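Teaching assistant here, posting this on the class forum so everyone can see the example we discussed in section. The complex has two components, and the goal was to see what a joint structure prediction looks like when all of them are supplied at once.
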Amino acid sequence: MSEEPGFAGACVAVVGLGLMGGSLAGALATRQACRQVVGVSRRPETLRTALERGWIHHGTTDLIEGTAQADVVVLATPPRVVLRQLREIGPHLQAGTLVMDLASTKAQVLRAMEGLPACVQPLGGHPMCGKEQAGIEAAQPDLFAGRPFILSPLPRTSAGALEQGKALVRAVGAVPVVLDAADHDRMVAWVSHLPHTVALSLMGAAMAGAQQDPGLWSLAASGFRDTTRLAASDPDMMLDIFLTNQENILRAMNAFREQFDKLYALIEAGGEAPLREFIEAASRRRRELNL
Amino acid sequence: MSEEPGFAGACVAVVGLGLMGGSLAGALATRQACRQVVGVSRRPETLRTALERGWIHHGTTDLIEGTAQADVVVLATPPRVVLRQLREIGPHLQAGTLVMDLASTKAQVLRAMEGLPACVQPLGGHPMCGKEQAGIEAAQPDLFAGRPFILSPLPRTSAGALEQGKALVRAVGAVPVVLDAADHDRMVAWVSHLPHTVALSLMGAAMAGAQQDPGLWSLAASGFRDTTRLAASDPDMMLDIFLTNQENILRAMNAFREQFDKLYALIEAGGEAPLREFIEAASRRRRELNL
């Protein structure tokens, strides 16, 4: 680990060069935030693309080779791959290495991070940004600019390691937000995971409707486009989210269904005043949000 | 009615100068598509704004005065106001006047249009565009550019009147799509009205979650923003939509609930293969859509 504050002298290994990892590597390299960015990817062509763009200084398909000498390791793979990679890299890491992830759910990853050797510093991370495209083709070094970037330390995480994590977050242009893993998973279930289930179900419903009326797709405008956008997210990522945050997601889904059933009953009853009240409460709150 | 093809020599009265009516008046006037645009609004300040922008040539708060001499009347008010205004203007219109509306639901409006004097030409209209802001401040003359604009003729509507409606649609930059009112209402229930119910319910669910976790709003990113955007639509418009297309909306809501409950059960069961199948079917279809 570099003796300099932050990680200006550090070698940062980014494992997985998709939307998130590619963007992170690109942000670090193009902003010259650290001494070296090493990229790890299963696919040589992804490494070539990252090298050509100047987003990594060195690339390898070998997880152990790519991470063993790093001062900071960022696992930018889907949650369940992170769980496996933590087990694989643990024994080979240098003492003092900061190990972060970028996965959308935190509790399971942090439990797995407990299994890392005691000399290693684990720190959960989740940048609150994204888009529906996946892969390095969709990556962009300014993806994190101005976005909240959640950091979830473990009890064993040192204050210095947390500071280093914050420095990395700021170096890619994001805003560090320290949040307990359980709080994180409960809160993002409402604002991120639930919207994914809703978007997928809306697509499913429209597909059912299109069996009778194939022409409905030609009438879909910006409202349908935006409400279903999340359904086009990477299926592997959605699968991993749903399987690693079940309890919180099911609770949020139950709350959604309660609202949806209430609205159904109000429309069916056809009384203006209570229907207006429901609509206006949700509509007012939405307009108040600064999104 | 002008003898010229289309309506280059026509006086077009636009009733209601909100998002839709303001944009339509602005498109007609700035493209010099007709001889005169008369604006009708309850509020004098709206008329002043429209006059200042050059979107109308003449403004009045008097519905009868504004429409009695027009060759084309476009009612750009919410569906249930349209129903009332049709009764009010009917006896005062010139023979041959084309009477259109822009309401989001068509069956009820077209039934009311049947009550117009026989010498008048009724034509239902629904431009497939919009945004969550309401009022003339949100209006923009290019709102219709490239968008489908549905025209629903009645059995009594003459071929010439339908052609004049198509000419108006093309004059504001939109693409005319002729569709039976019942087909329209059934199809837009899936791609427009159902997404509104989903967005409102999602806001309601997040508001319930925020009672325990007020901090969740600060984690809301672009996914939540887009999935809930329609909840910020004009409450009066949503209310009118829900109350004038109940049957179709309830059918679409039932189909949504079926999908949502299926996804809930799959997440609860935790089996990877069937969950992946559900996700991938919806995700693939969404990516295929050219939205």
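For the discussion questions: The CA atoms of residues 13 and 38 of chain A lie 5 Å apart. Confidence is low (pLDDT under 50) at residues 1-5 of chain A. Think about how each of these relates to the inputs above.
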